[in-house]
Amino acid sequence: MDGGALWREIGGEAHAIDQARLHFPHLAEAALVDRRMAMRLMGASAALALASGCEGGNPARKASPGSRDWDTTDRRTTLAMNGLGFGVIVKTANGMPVKIEGDPDHPASLGRSNIFAQAAILSYYDPARPDRALLRGGAGAAEKLHAAIDALARSARQGGGAGLHILIEPVASPTLERMVEEARAALPQARFYAHRPIALAANAVAGLDTAHAIVSLGADFLGPGPMQVRHAADFMAGRRAALDAGEAHTMLVAESVPSLTGARADRRIVAGPARIERIARALAEDPVADPEAGRIAAALDAAGDRGVLAVGEQVPRDLRAALAARYGGPIPERWQSTLEGLPGIADVTAALEAGEVERLLILSGNPAYNAPAQVPFLQAMAGAKASLYLGEEDNETARLCGTHLAARPHLASWGDLRAFDGSVSPVRPVAPGAGISAIEFLARLAGVTGSERELVAQTHGASPQDLGQESWSPVPAPLPAAPATAIEALPPSLAAPQGLALAFLPDATVWDGALAANGWAQELPDPLTGLAWGNAVTIAPALADRYDLKDGDEIELRHGARRLTAPARILPGQAEEVLGISLGYGRQFAGVGSGIGANAYALRGDGPLLYGVTLRATGRHVALVRASPYQTPDDIDAVRWTRPGAPAIRDEPFGPSFVDPQRRADRQWGMAIDLDACIGCNACTIACQAENNIPVVGPEETRMGRAMHWLRIDKYHRGRRDNPETAFQPVPCMHCETAPCEPVCPVGATTHSSEGLNQMTYNRCIGTRSCSNNCPYKVRKYNWYDYREDPANRPDEGTNPRVTVRDRGVMEKCTYCVQRIEAARVEEGGGVPMTACQQACPTQAITFGDISDPASEVSQARRSPRNYELLDGLNLRPRTTYLARLNADGGGDG
């Protein structure tokens, strides 16, 4: 079906020069340069290029891979993602972590990963992370730290904990839960609270791996979060199985703000929160009462046990429970930890305001930043006579406490974490680190003896030695049950509120603000807005027209006495009566993320939506930061749609060429990327960055189009701007057989290998950038500065020792992870390696291997009738090809 021409941005039909002026205003001055000045600049550039080629540079960083003396080890542990367990394998070099991959034996990761798992490496090396006690700005030695904790514990136990109030960020850790119970028993007068801005409960969507019909009512189950990898893997497994069997597989999504789940839908309904609730209510009570609900109910009934209904949190809890009872699906607010049953942040705030708090202990989290807007926790903290913060980050909350105890880094700790399904996996130290964990701290308060490792072993009836064995895992324990609520009758629908609704969304990169200090997360573009280093208020095209707004125009949102200013970002496919904003920005003490973006918590209450918001344009403009700021529609067929059983997209042979590539080696490497499987999650991009020592360049350089990512995700639309179809396209180096970048290099720094790789020889490169100018895919990146000196990047001991760290003035690009190819050849007897992007992909959209082997997976993919080349009219014979997106339903519906 012809869905119309591809487009990327609203207003993208403007002339290319106008687009360049819009995105690169600093280049407009170039128009003032006359011919004489241009010749002078060309001469100076040539001289500088020659000089850069003669510089010695940093000898240690010029060293080729393998020149360092290093020893690598793979170690299993479990990361905490929003408090839930995510199993990983950490690769260390000389005892220091350098790369993280998913654990194939863990139910949440399945050997794959996401942004948050990959970014954990950089968080470990955060230079702002304290490693000792901070006493009102001063530092204390480790001996004083432990003495102070012991004195606090003795004093607290003598009074039974009277006046002691402890606020905990809940984590699904059986040992932490046990230590809380021990502390409550030893300190009966103490009061415990829990706060996490995004609920710990994981409403896993079951049955995706066998589903043929999926309906989502505002549930972004393919979006960011601890369940993203498992949901994405199950979704694609079910879709592939259905299509391979010749059966239909469709997904319908009704949503207010565009999401990754909606972008992947076969049919999408743009609906405000009130309409979504009406559809949900009709499904629960009488599907015939609403035409859309009737169609959904018929599809689910026809699919039987192969139908899945997922409902988002904006639908009232009782209604979600009724739908789960009728159609199956996630049980609303299923607890993952007993800590969720503790009183919340409003209760501790009331105690502070009442003067009941002698000592306030805050164990992790950042409540001074992310407390609900109606809860004055920040102001109430002054009511505590003494305060102590235990955490890894010197954040807003830590700055307000009298004492800051450094928490041991997660990668250096012992512990345990419960996954979404109740299975528990151990947390093992895979790196060095100082400090004290919340488990140890609570044990000391309770008078329980033992090291962190011993405490975890006691929880599971094991020996400390058992925990160190890679094969050991605790016995699965049942999930804590949330209090059951009987549903006798659904409450009536609320009247539609006046004004606009504001949707608060977890950010795709910094989540709730926990990764705001992480340069990899900040510089990674949001898959839907395309923004890096900040957020914006997303707004529907029709609403933008009504207020005469353009991208970057500053707007003020008001709700009662509270207000928030932020730039606008027009987002195709958003409901007109809804605004959207991502959480996690506007931090004041977050290292490289300080002062970046707008703090959505200034308006956010307890729920995902805020009604009655008013909007006003301030008349100011903010320059938005985009990792790929200048995108032109070079190829109107960049993303292609087809149907199962349709004729081959490309069946004609390549045209003649002056270059006749010779396949001189036995193996010929190639890659195929399935656009039907790509969900735009960016896991491949950040995995490539972690594997290949790609630097962070910062917001100013990113704004100038100098972000260094070797692999970018392009987003395309087709159809109406109020509800277009959306597709994502990963774009690495194509490794063309007739590569136009190779013959233009004056020093032969880019060449072709006998195995078909387009290679870069870094110490030959003199930085003319001719190769980048001649690359039609624009996948080559230039080191304008020595970015490695920036503290936002990893120190030398944290870089991948197999990959050369590049200097200033050098071009770089995707290498098909040549270091993994060589390692497989030398260390693994010549096996076929997995590239970093391929290994991370949750949906296995990327296939890599030997295209000269007709039985290889990549060869089979390239023989698919869906296979095609990007910019195939240029006759470049790229080794990277694409499989077209499958369109089962023909597009969106308003």
Report on the architecture of this protein.
The chain is α/β, with parallel strands linked by helices and 894 residues long. Among the domains are: 133-200 and 338-467, Rossmann fold (3-Layer(aba) Sandwich), CATH 3.40.50.740; 213-327, Dimethylsulfoxide Reductase, domain 2; 500-621, Barwin-like endoglucanases (Beta Barrel). The chain is 25% helix and 20% strand. It is built from 26 helices and 35 strands. A seven-stranded mixed β-sheet has the order 6-5-15-14-13-7-8. A six-stranded mixed β-sheet has the order 19-21-20-23-18-22. Strands 11-10-9-12 form a four-stranded parallel β-sheet. Strand 16 (415-418) and strand 17 form a beta hairpin. The radius of gyration is 28 Å and the shape is globular. The two termini are 18 Å apart.
C-alpha end-to-end distance: 18 Å
The CATH architecture of the domain at 133-200 and 338-467 is: 3-Layer(aba) Sandwich
CATH class descriptor of the domain at 133-200 and 338-467? Alpha Beta
Mean pLDDT: 88
The number of helical runs is 26
Q: Strand order of the main beta sheet, please? A: 6-5-15-14-13-7-8
Nearest-angstrom radius of gyration?
28 Å
Q: Name the overall outline.
A: globular
Content of β-strand: 15-25%
The total of beta strands comes to: 35
Which fold name is given in CATH as the topology of the domain at 133-200 and 338-467?
Answer: Rossmann fold
Largest sheet: 7 strands, mixed
Which range best describes the helical content: under 10%, 10-25%, 25-40%, 40-55%, 55-70% or over 70%? 25-40%
Structural class: alpha/beta
